[in-house]
Amino acid sequence: MVTVPELPEVEALAAFLRENAVGHVLARADLASVQAIKTFDPPLSALGGLEITGVGRHGKFLDLDVSGVHLVVHLARAGWLHWRTGLPPAPPKPGKGPLALRVHLDDGNGFDLTEQGTRKGLAVYVVRSPSEVPGIARLGPDALQVDREQFAALMAGRSGQLKGALTDQTLISGIGNAYSDEILHAARLSPFKGADKLKDDELIRLYEAMRATLTDALDRQAGQKAATMKGEKRSGLQVHARTGLPCPVCGDTVREVSFADTSLQYCPACQTGGKPLADRRMSKLLR
User: Fold this and answer.
1) What is the pLDDT of residues 141-173, one digit of tens each?
2) pLDDT over threshold 60, residue 46
3) How confident is the model at residue 282 (pLDDT cuts 50, 70, 90)?
4) Does residue 283 fall inside a structural domain?
5) Which is nearest to 72 in space by CA: 90, 95, 54?
6) Which Pfam families match (predicted)?
7) Range of the domain at 26
8) CA distance 198 to 3
9) Mean pLDDT of the chain, nearest integer
10) Number of structural domains, the chain?
11) Which member of 23, 43, 195, 221 lies 3.0 to 4.6 Å from 158 by CB, making a disulfide possible if both were Cys?
């Protein structure tokens, strides 16, 4: 199972770095994967010798404020941050391995940014303002900051299916494949129901499920080390990545719809009136 970092995990990583990296000087940053870096001015070397003064999050982007220069990271589908104690002083050799970037702090500790698999999407930006990152500039309101009225307006103005609406970062930011499955299950709604076709009670259920699912995930991540966050995410999932297993709510079998490069999971009894959704890629799916 690929555990894609979403709002709760990125927020937890930010909290971890606030505790362990803020106040330290970033000694140097070693690039191991040239394709990971997306900017050239300021150069990556500009971070060397500057103090890490803050760590924040924008949707699924992690933002390290290094004395006014921002090291912004998007972990993509298979990226992760690994905290290291006692990093070797020699720079890593660029190659085809998972290491993308290594950050050394002044105390000998630091962290690695890695990405598994052959499809590389992890992105690193060095910018003077986070708004210079195209993906951040396009973000919709944060999923945990949008209020119910704003959420209703966003859904009403969106044609297309709920699954796509929840994962569209320009509409609402922070939710990915896993938590959208979990939110729709908690709200008892089909992933293929039209976003602009929601009744008032369905809108309320969806909004409250979004808030509850994300805040519960954040609570479970609180205090976790970077190494244990993925396992904590997996342990709390009800339907996502649980194809063929019983739904924890009703006992029905969790089912899957596959697409070209991803899939979704749902419970027919809880979400679609007991009817399985058609699982063929180019079909018109049941609503």
Assistant:
1) 999 999 999 999 999 999 999 999 999 999 999
2) yes
3) very low
4) no
5) 54
6) Fapy_DNA_glyco, H2TH, zf-FPG_IleRS
7) 7-137
8) 30
9) 93
10) 2
11) 195
Paired with 96 in beta bridges are none
Token pair listed for 247: 């739904």
The answer to whether residue 225 sits within a structural domain is: yes
160 & 224 share domain: yes
The two tokens of residue 167 are: 């994962």
Asked if 21 and 87 sit in the same domain, the reply is yes
Q: Within the chain, what is the greatest distance between any pair of CA atoms?
A: 60
Whether 153 and 132 share a structural domain: no
Residue 143 backbone dihedrals phi, psi, to 5 degrees: -60, -25
Q: Amino acid letter at 222?
A: A
Tens of pLDDT, residues 163-201: 999 999 999 999 999 999 999 999 999 999 999 999 999
* CATH number where 183 lies: 1.10.8.50
Any domain includes 81:
yes
The confidence score (pLDDT) of residue 19 equals: 95
